[in-house]
Amino acid sequence: MKGWILYKRNKSELTQADHGVNRLLSAAESLEIDLDVHRPDEFELIISRDDKKSILLKDERVSLPHFLLPRLGAETSYFALAIIRQLEKLGVYSCNHSTAIETVRDKMFLSQLLAQSDLPSPKTMLVKFPVSISVVEREIGFPLVIKNISGARGIGIHLCETVQSFRDLMDLIASHGGNCQMVLQEFVASSYGRDLRVFVLGGKVIGCMKRFSKDSFKANYSLGGEVEPYSLTPEIEHLAIKCANLFNLEIAGIDLLFDTEGFKICEANSSPGFKGMERATNTNIALQILEYVKNKAEVSS
Fold first, then answer.
1. How large is the C-alpha radius of gyration of the chain?
2. Torsion of the alpha carbons at 6, 11, 15 and 17, rounded to the nearest 10
3. What residues are paired with 280 via a beta bridge?
4. Maximum separation of any 2 CA atoms in the chain, in Å
5. Edge-to-edge, what's the strand order for the sheet holding 60-63?
6. DSSP labels for 282-299?
7. More confident residue, 237 or 131
8. What is the pLDDT of residues 128-167, one digit of tens each?
9. Which residues contact 123 (CB under 8 A, 6 or more apart)?
């Protein structure tokens, strides 16, 4: 069994900070999977009818892997997405599929689909310039959360507490051309500095943890937040699985906010990190991912 991970660094460039990829490589050895790691810029996409069993990698034609694990998440570029699509067209099983990755990297589109599905989620508004402060105040209210359309790991998220601070920030962005793609989101005060991360694999929840921070409204583990195990309830399981299924995500990190009654779905991630999850739940997430992917690749081949 041969697999590739599509990532921002190749295998020789990995450091200790690349926890998820390193854990997957370690798990691959125990499962006797030949797993390699490649950057998108190492590929060339030549579209022809001549050769459907290989692809150009580092300027050489190489045989196709049995599966692909994209690990770029919201940072998936157009070119990276094209690579995933091309490999899928050539019969390579990709986990997750390109359409699912493309969907969840756009926070506005994600929110539109959530609202259409009637799953509980914060009210969301797309920013356009000039910004109508009165509409924002009436429809979203303050405090509110500002997010980049395709941000990840808690980066590009800002809590704006007053009308004046929001006006000042929008004026600053507008003075630089107003080209930022952002959404405004209802602030769920009851979830300040804490949330849940639920890990879904193949339609099943394999991990649930609480993330919390004492110094920030963002609870991301990658930003210094702490984690602890959290008991899975029928509500949490239902929301996480239904959300993952809505976006056709086989691997998903679903973020839930603590609402006054129950939970609201904050985000869905196509390439969730699992360092905190393995620590909180004392489970081998990497091994479970590769066992699942190996089985799926064998069925699809």
1. 20
2. 20
3. none
4. 61
5. 43-44, 54-57, 60-63
6. ---HHHHHHHHHHHHHHH
7. 237
8. 888 899 999 999 999 999 988 876 666 678 899 999 999 9
9. 139, 140, 185, 186
3-state secondary structure of 211: strand
Contact 267, 114 (CB under 8 A): no
Q: Which residues pair with 195 in a beta bridge?
A: 211
In the prediction, which pLDDT does 152 show? 62
Which two tokens mark 155?
């980066």
Lateral strand order in the sheet of 182-186: 124-126, 182-186, 144-148, 157-160
Dihedral over Cα of 182, 150, 254, 85: its sign? positive
Q: What does DSSP say about strands 2-6 and 67-70: parallel, antiparallel, or unpaired?
A: parallel
Strand blocks (E) in 52-191: 54-57, 60-63, 67-70, 93-94, 124-126, 144-148, 157-160, 182-186
| Rounded CA separation 77/59 (Å) | 20
Q: 235-260: string of b/e by CB count within 10 Å (b at 16+)?
A: ebeebbbebbebbebbbbbbbbbbee
Q: Where are the beta strands (DSSP E) in 30-120?
A: 34-38, 43-44, 54-57, 60-63, 67-70, 93-94
Answer yes or no: are the C-beta atoms of 143 and 169 closer than 8 Å.
Answer: no
- End-to-end CA separation in angstroms for the chain: 11
Q: Rounded distance, CA 69 to CA 271, Å?
A: 9
